[in-house]
Design goal:
Distance between the termini: 64 Å
Oligomer: single chain
Radius of gyration: 21 Å
């Protein structure tokens, strides 16, 4: 409870000092590193983490800023509309990129969720909670063994984690969610704008 209140006031002297020291430490370490304990245990527990066998936490650094388009020498052989190279923003959020990178490294684990831990001028640092679907402690726990099901392989690549659902625009509820019924805004639009002339076959 007190940790949560502390993190609500990130400008407080205590937290500013703590984050600055930690940011320095994170910069010296590799971009993707396994941590023994979550840096924010209160946040991790709210997202499903349990301090027991089968749960793993990784910290990952993702470069901040826009996503530059990859074109050799910055040349686009097309119409001027597509000539932009520099000021292009990614559709996805940086947290989903963090989850994806950890998911690629740990192919045998399932990504459960992730949360922000720090940031500096160059990087944002996230911690990603992973679950081992082969572990007996996970398979026997009725609260988490849904993730053992093979449909949850690489959830992070398919936009099924919380960060993924966020950039897909699936966080709304009620009457504001009418245009995302059917999977996504795009799927809903396609369904309503496809002419289907049904007839007896």
């Amino acid at each position: 409870k007190y940790l949560e209140e502390l993190y609500h006031r990130k400008q407080a002297d205590v937290l500013r000092f703590l984050l600055r020291v930690r940011a320095w430490e994170y910069r010296q370490l590799p971009k993707l590193v396994k941590v023994n304990h979550p840096t924010r245990p209160d946040k991790a527990r709210r997202l499903g983490y349990k301090a027991k066998q089968g749960f793993v936490v990784y910290r990952v650094a993702v470069r901040r800023g826009g996503r530059k388009r990859k074109n050799g020498k910055g040349i686009v052989y097309g119409k001027p509309k597509h000539h932009g190279i520099r000021q292009i923003k990614a559709v996805r959020n940086l947290r989903s990129y963090a989850e994806e990178r950890v998911g690629k490294r740990c192919g045998n684990l399932r990504v459960l969720n992730s949360y922000w831990v720090n940031q500096d001028a160059t990087y944002k640092y996230f911690e990603v909670i992973l679950v081992d679907p082969q572990h007996t402690a996970i398979r026997r726990d009725p609260r988490i063994n849904w993730i053992v099901n093979p449909v949850h392989k690489h959830r992070e690549h398919r936009g099924l984690t919380a960060a993924g659902r966020h950039y897909r625009g699936l966080t709304k509820r009620g009457h504001r969610a009418n245009k995302i019924i059917g999977g996504s805004r795009r799927a809903n639009w396609l369904k309503h704008n496809t002419l289907s002339l049904r007839r007896y076959r």
